[in-house]
Structure prediction request, 427 residues.
Amino acid sequence: MTALTPPMNGGCRTAPVLKERGQREVFCGLTGIIWLHRKMQDAFFLVVGSRTCAHLLQSAAGVMIFAEPRFGTAILEETDLAGMADAQKEVDRVVAQLLDRRPDIRQLFLVGSCPSEVIKIDLHRAAERLNAQHAPHVRVLNYSGSGIETTFTQGEDAALASMVPVLKETEARELLIVGALPDVVEDQMLGMLRAMGIGPIHCLPAHRIDQETAVGPNTVFALVQPFLGDTHAALERRGARHLPAPFPFGEEGTTAWLSVIAAEFDVPASLFSQVTDAPRARARKAIAQAAETLNGKSVFFFPDSQLEIPLARFLTRECGMTAIEVGSPYIHDALVGPDLDLLPAGPVISEGQDVDKQLARARAARADLTVCGLGLANPLEAEGLSTKWAIELVFTPVHFYEQAGDLAGLFSRPLRRKSILKLEAAE
Prediction:
């Protein structure tokens, strides 16, 4: 296995954190449904919300009108908002219609939204009642995707956390990989772990409820997404043990993540090298191409996806960038601590947001690249700053070795585009 060299000037784990609580620019937590419904092939996500919620999901998913997506919206009408209809009866009616039309559904998530929470529809009680009615054929769960208090990646965290209490109990020593990945990336990851002789391995979320995903005191789990704080806590309450590691972004992060799991399962160093040497070399070569554009450039992260700290570690250590500020909506030390250990000291580490104050710092810094949400990108571009949409980093396959070059390319392309435009303008 490979030991990582800490930064010469020390890491950021003990650095002071600038904590801000003010106006925020966040994307709705319902967005997580867009990747979860593709991953969980026997699940359905029923949002109890407004027409705005429905339009958001339809637009974000890009689903054709003739498609049969695994999500929908039970739209709150004026009678619901005015309290003239019995909300619980209305939920029961819509669910009965849905399950009658879609008998393939095995997991049904009742997803709260801003409107349903403002008028205090108790979807937890509805889920308990409907689960008792439709189990075991359909498991009914509830979580909140409201954007009032959450950022958009927390939708996945809330969904997975709702599943943990109902997972089967097991005494077996097993590895649980937690976090949704594109199928091709998940297959690559599982292929490497199994080539090292590690197993049994299960994933949360699984493709189908029938798969034997279970948890118990001998379960160890590794996270592939840094925004799963509630799921992490729920698994520990079930007795599972977390394997802290840098997140698998880039060659270095992927190697470190795999090394922690390999050490837990006593994989010989020779076997680890045999499995990882070739993909590591490919990753380094792919990253080097993008790093030619990124090396020596500066980056400023607005808090958005909770990927900011691992990505800052990747860009500074593997691409030669300098981080000016690394903002994250929430900083969970048990999750991102290993990445903070490796992130070279120097940048401002900020948690939460007061958007006006942070905009002032970003404008003063004028970093070569600013990573931010959709709502801020266009205004900053108009001011001459190059930006990268944070949401693109969630919707694009970026984990593990084979995607490392693509990850670096997401950051290098805005800078290359700006250079080309400058040349064209000069001509």
Remarks:
- Residues 269-294 form the longest helix (26 residues).
